[in-house]
Design a protein that fits this description.
Order of helices and strands: HHHEEHHHEEEEHHHEHHEEEH
Radius of gyration: 26 Å
Largest sheet: 5 strands, antiparallel
């Protein structure tokens, strides 16, 4: 365990390096921070921190920079989440309140996160498997052709065309729509198959084929892997940090193009808490020079997806964590009210 004083020295090194982009020396630390000890003592503390792998000497300069291990300790023990100011919170709310549908909510969230953090923003679309059914609409397009529209509690809308085995009358359609919604509206997707398994039996023999086809289409829609969707914004922000990436920025950009990689990095949606993955904690080699801050968002206290940012390990962790958490909270409120 590090002593309290050495923890304070590590905190000062991280803060200065993030702010100045320059390796930090003992003289600068004692001048900028009220550490209450001499430069010689700070030098000794820095030597101990270096021996234990929390800081490193990048070149022959006298300064030191934090390692992944140093950032990890900073995030876990030393960094509080920086709260957003009242004007910042109002700006977030006003920007997101203007959204007209789910796609617009996701697009605005990406833009907002990228602007607030000056990093790359990543937002996952709400997962169908953790959603509930708000309404199922059935529309007649032709005597034997229907459109099924599934609307979720998160505002997500899925549409499917259905070719019926026989013409289906308007009265039968209205009857099916009413019976279907009476069973599934407000229910979790996982419960729907059991709720509708005997529904076709209540219809006339000539209509059962079409009812079964509609139910099959609905169940297929419920289990499709549509949650594997992301929106990314702010990749141009990475160019401001070119010197933070060894050799080239290309591996980072290539990794950001791999949606499967990003979904894994955001983490399991079931874990709604704040996650910070630093440097080599990211399993994907192309992102070993980055940190990823993510959190779940949703309505009713349950996460339906994740959002977060990707940036260099030299990141303002308290500010980034605060922005990500605040935006997630507002997105959850919007989904709950939509």
């Amino acid at each position: 365990m590090l002593s309290e004083r050495r923890l304070q020295v590590l905190r000062a090194i991280v803060q200065d390096y993030v702010g100045t982009e320059e390796p930090v020396g003992s003289k600068a630390l004692t001048e900028r921070h009220n550490l209450g000890v001499s430069p010689a003592t700070v030098r000794n503390d820095m030597a101990a921190l270096e021996d234990e792998g929390y800081i490193a000497q990048p070149h022959t300069s006298a300064g030191r920079i934090p390692t992944d291990k140093g950032y990890r300790l900073f995030v876990d023990k030393l960094a509080g989440v920086k709260p957003m100011t009242a004007p910042e919170r109002r700006a977030i709310q006003n920007f997101l309140d203007g959204a007209v549908d789910l796609d617009d909510v996701v697009a605005r969230t990406v833009r907002l996160l990228a602007q607030l953090t000056r990093q790359v923003a990543v937002v996952q679309y709400p997962s169908l498997t953790r959603s509930t059914v708000r309404h199922v609409e059935l529309l007649a397009l032709a005597p034997a052709r229907l459109m099924l529209v599934l609307i979720t509690d998160t505002g997500r809308v899925e549409q499917r065309m259905i070719d019926c085995p026989a013409p289906f009358g308007e009265t039968s359609l209205a009857d099916l729509r009413a019976r279907l919604n009476s069973r599934v509206a407000g229910r979790r997707f996982a419960d729907v198959p059991q709720l509708v398994e005997d529904l076709a039996e209540g219809f006339d023999l000539e209509d059962r084929g079409t009812v079964s086809t509609v139910l099959s289409t609905l169940l297929e829609t419920l289990v499709e892997e549509n949650e594997e969707r992301l929106m990314i914004g702010g990749t141009a922000n990475l160019t401001r940090f070119g010197h933070d990436f060894p050799l080239t920025i290309r591996p980072v950009l290539e990794a950001l193009e791999e949606q499967v990689v990003l979904l894994k990095l955001l983490g399991e949606t079931q874990d709604p808490g704040m996650t910070v993955r630093i440097g080599h904690e990211n399993a994907y080699e192309g992102l070993n020079s980055t940190s990823i801050v993510s959190v779940g968002y949703g309505s009713g206290g349950e996460a339906v997806a994740k959002l977060g940012v990707v940036g260099p390990t030299r990141m303002d962790y308290p500010g980034t964590m605060g922005a990500v958490r605040a935006v997630a909270r507002y997105v959850g409120q919007i989904l709950a009210e939509s």
